[in-house]
Amino acid sequence: MTGFGSASCSEGGLTVGVEVRSVNNRHRKCLVRLPEEFLPLEGPLERTVVEHFQRGSLTVSVRVQESEGSQAGRIDEQAFQRYLSQLLGMPGVDHSATKIDLAGILNLPGVVVFEQEERIAQIGALAHSAAKEACEQLQGMREVEGQALEQDLLTQCDAIEERLRTIRSALPSISQQHEDRMLQRMREMLESLNVSEDPRDLVREVAFFAERSDISEEVTRMDAHLVQFRELLTGHDPVGRTLDFLTQEMLRETNTIGSKIQQVDVSRAIVEIKSAVDRLKEQVQNVE
Fold it and tell me: Which of 8, 50, 123, 245 is most buried as measured by Cβ atoms within 10 A of its Cβ?
């Protein structure tokens, strides 16, 4: 499902914002975009996001804002003293007439130390909190979309069920038409070959043909699939992949029915069922 969530967290002059976007995908993929200096946070952030979702293509964007105070480093007093001692101990220098630039000493290597690990850890903690809040917002949007999607899926199920009732009511006449057609063809073939007909052979062949063209089992399985489909929609667990499998089975049963039945009115109902199943198959790709 599609959706968007955004949140930010601040602490000690640091502000970390996280945006999470989702588009439809039958699998789960997650792409984290963040500044190169914060690449160590990519793995933890991805784990934080994917634990909220089972399907979808997720894109996570991170932005970091730091105030000037938060970027201040720590002065290494020992390094500072060593530089100062060397300057004061230089021979041939009149220290009473020489002014030492203390600010210049701060620019020397190793005097000001930035605690990068602590900084990244702090940013990581803020990003984790912001990501969880953004995921909750995204989940809320997906739930609203899911309610509309559920209604559409149930509408397609009702359409399939109605067409199955049409087929089921036509089964007795379909069977009789098959038997009559089969008997007529066999009699015509026997007459053309000038062979007398044996009633037992005719009965056996008609029974064999009737068994091959019977669709009662397929219709019954379609009913069972529809019941299970509706039950899964009312649950609270992730059912996207199960629904995907069910629609494949429903399409297989529909194709089997279509291959056995050639009547125009029933064929029209089968075409409509296939259209509804295709709609289900397309939509369940968006179900988590």
Answer: 123
Triad 179, 260, 256: Cα angle to 5°: 155
Same domain? For 151 and 250 the reply is: yes
User: What string of pLDDT tens digits covers the 288 residues of the chain?
Assistant: 678 899 999 887 788 999 999 888 778 889 999 888 788 889 999 999 988 888 788 999 999 887 765 555 667 777 778 877 877 777 766 666 667 777 777 777 777 666 667 778 888 899 999 999 999 999 888 888 888 888 999 999 999 999 998 888 877 676 666 666 666 666 666 667 665 655 565 556 555 555 566 778 888 899 999 999 999 888 777 788 889 899 999 999 998 888 877 777 678 888 999 999 999 988 888 777
Residue with tokens 């996570």: 60
Q: Which helix (H) or strand (E) holds 5?
A: strand 3-11
Nearest 5 degrees, angle CA 151-CA 153-CA 156? 110
pTM of the model: 0.57
End-to-end alpha-carbon separation of the chain, Å?
A: 8
The tokens for 199 are 């009633």
- For residues 53-82, one letter each, b for 16 or more C-beta atoms within 10 angstroms of the residue's C-beta and e for the rest, the string is bebbbbbbebebeeeeeeeeeeeeeebbee
Q: Do 158 and 176 sit in the same domain of this protein?
A: yes
Distance CA 57, CA 31 (A): 8
Largest Cα–Cα distance in the chain? Answer: 138
Tell me which residue range forms the domain holding 65: 3-70+116-140
